[in-house]
Every structure is written in structure tokens, then in C-alpha cells.
Amino acid sequence: MTKSAFLRFVKADPSMYDGDGMTISDKWAQQQELYAKMTGSMGQDYDYRMMGKPDARGHGADAGKLPWHPTFSTQSAFSTPKQPGGVWGHDKRGDTFKPTERMNDRFFQEYMLREEPNVRVIK
Questions:
Q1: How far out from the chain centre does Cα 4 lie?
Q2: pTM of the full predicted structure?
Q3: Rounded distance, CA 4 to CA 61, Å?
Q4: Which of 30, 62, 104, 122 could form an SS bridge with 75, CB 3.0 to 4.6 Å?
């Protein structure tokens, strides 16, 4: 990981929001993400400075996905040998995503059903 990527990673650490008696509302988190996207800064799980040109669905490249993004992948600037991301692929049946063991939890499964219903998760 480059020094600049590491500094962005440290800055984006979501534990900064952890604290006794602290509750983060979904509305607040969505507002923060919208602000980050509009200003080209770092959001909760994506570094918008690395977005690149959005695709037809409005999605940016994986380069800016942070390790706790549900589809954090090997294409991210933050993927390392010690903390690799999942692997996007494509076969005759369509798009695929192979999550790491760490990623493959209920939150990930729900995210994929909601946001990537046409992507087949492979083990």
C-alpha cells in the first residue's frame, strides 16, 4: 500500500465513530456519504477522490473502496496481501464475485441481494 493510500485508510477508520453512548443514525451516515460524494472526499466506505468516471449505473471504479465496503475487492488501492479484497469475475452465466472468508457474512449477503442482484456470489 502506498503512503498516500495508507494515510487515506487511517483517516477513514470507522472506529472513530465508536464511543460509549454514541449512536449514529442512518440519516446522518447517508448525509455524510452524500457530502463526501459531492465534494470528492472520503465517505464511510469509499474514497471518492479515486472514483473515476462512473459507469452506466452511476458506480465508480473499485479503486476507492475501503476494506469495510461490502464489495471491497482486489481492484481497490487499499487491498493488500494481508487484507485482500474479494474477486470480481465474469463467466458464461454472467458477473461473479468471490468474497473473502472475512467478508462473507449476513450483511454481505443482504447487500448483494439488494444492490447486486444480478451478480452470482461464488465460494
A1: 18
A2: 0.70
A3: 18
A4: 62
